[in-house]
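Dear colleague,

Thank you for sharing your sequence with our group. We've completed the structure prediction you requested, and as agreed, I am returning the results in plain text so they can be pasted directly into your records. Please verify that the sequence below matches your submission; if there's any discrepancy, let me know and we will rerun it promptly.
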Amino acid sequence: MTAVRLRTVDAFTDKAVKLWQEQFGSEYRLPATVVAEGENGELVVVNVFATDQDHLNFGQNMGGPMTAVGLTDPFAGLEHLPVRKLDWDETRLR
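Please find the predicted structure tokens below.
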């Protein structure tokens, strides 16, 4: 499993994910998403992908929707993290 942490979240990011889902959601799986408050009060989104292929399918197709909503540097601020353990039912990723 792979997790991707996006440091800043806004309406543009949400719109881009919705566009991705409209374009590719029937072909690929969306990640499980957790939104939390970061250490400095910012919103942090963590997307958890069941497989590396799910992560690739999402990432390779996300650039277009992000550009379409005006995010000019869509992958700035991404941090890729390995997932060692889930404390919730893994079936949420299917």
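Summary note from our side: Strands lie at 2-6, 32-37, 43-49, 78-82.

Kind regards,
the structure core
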